[in-house]
Inverse folding.
């Protein structure tokens, strides 16, 4: 049943086309919309122009609690539409090595020199929640595990702040890792805590997607400090802010964990 198809164009952008259902198309456009300013109002007022004009006409966008509440409801609805549209077997576009963006842009909620310094000898990955084997992982064990299953991808990273870039990440598919630790894959969420106090969470279908990677290398080298050493999650089906760098803890849960930007109004599903 081909109700909708996802296709990549030359530029590597992907789009959903679903005959006869403008709402789903609009929902997709709504979440892939890039915003230039990482603020709640900028993000929400842009989505408003696409999704909620009729709903909110006559309301002022400034400091109006009922508008904010309506927009929050739209964002939750938007999460549900995106989750329904998400297909575990539809792959994000991949690229050739010659298309890699050099230098790859840096982004975080601070400037580059403030990126955390993680001591590889001291590092431990902590596991908690609905996981059978919660033993922490040292970096050498993690590296050996990843190298034995080497997965690699050249994909596009899309940041809501208005830029995108193609990069090459290597590691192990997150599905393999979740299997190894005995994660309950019927649970709803996987959450991440980072060495710089960033945090985010993703839905289980995305966690199990074949392109979702626990990445330890960038362009064939150890992941550089600024880009997430010692380890990041690379998810080409999601926007940049859903790709946690410097992961220090992973947990599996049925309780909504939110995220650093998500708790400030960014859409939680954050599909790209
Ligand atoms: N730990 C951590 N992860 C993070 C962020 C952050 O500030 N801290 N920023 C996110 C955002 S908004 C983007 S666009 C990407 C940037 O990744 P890059 O520096 O590899 O381009 O990291 C994401 N993951
Ligand atoms: Mo971002």
């Amino acid at each position: 049943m081909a109700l909708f198809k996802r296709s990549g164009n030359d530029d590597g952008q992907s789009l959903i086309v679903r005959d006869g259902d403008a709402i789903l198309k609009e929902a997709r456009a709504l979440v892939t919309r890039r915003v230039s300013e990482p603020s709640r109002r900028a993000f929400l007022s842009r989505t408003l122009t696409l999704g909620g004009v009729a709903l909110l006409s006559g309301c002022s966008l400034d400091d109006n609690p009922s508008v904010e509440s309506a927009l929050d409801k739209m964002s939750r609805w938007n999460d549900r539409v995106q989750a329904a549209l998400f297909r575990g077997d539809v792959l994000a576009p991949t690229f050739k090595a010659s298309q890699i963006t050099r230098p790859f842009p840096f982004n975080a909620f601070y400037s580059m020199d403030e990126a955390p310094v993680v001591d590889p000898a001291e590092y431990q990955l902590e596991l908690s929640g609905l996981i059978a084997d919660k033993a922490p992982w040292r970096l050498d064990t993690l590296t050996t595990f990843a190298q034995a299953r080497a997965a690699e991808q050249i994909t596009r990273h899309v940041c809501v702040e208005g830029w995108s870039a193609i990069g090459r990440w290597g590691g192990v598919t997150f599905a393999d890792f979740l299997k190894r630790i005995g994660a309950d894959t019927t649970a709803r969420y996987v959450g991440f805590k980072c060495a710089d106090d960033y945090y985010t969470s993703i839905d289980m279908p995305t966690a199990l997607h074949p392109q979702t990677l626990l990445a330890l290398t960038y362009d064939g080298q150890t992941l550089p400090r600024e880009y997430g050493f010692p380890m990041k999650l690379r998810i080409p089906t999601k926007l940049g802010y859903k790709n946690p760098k410097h992961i220090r803890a992973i947990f599996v849960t049925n309780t909504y964990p939110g995220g650093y930007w998500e708790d400030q109004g960014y859409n939680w599903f954050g599909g790209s």
User: Anything to note?
Assistant: The pocket of MTE (ligand 1) is lined by residues 105-109, 159, 194, 196, 198, 227, 240-241, 243-246 (CB under 6 Å). Confidence is low (pLDDT under 50) at residues 1-20, 33-37, 48-54.
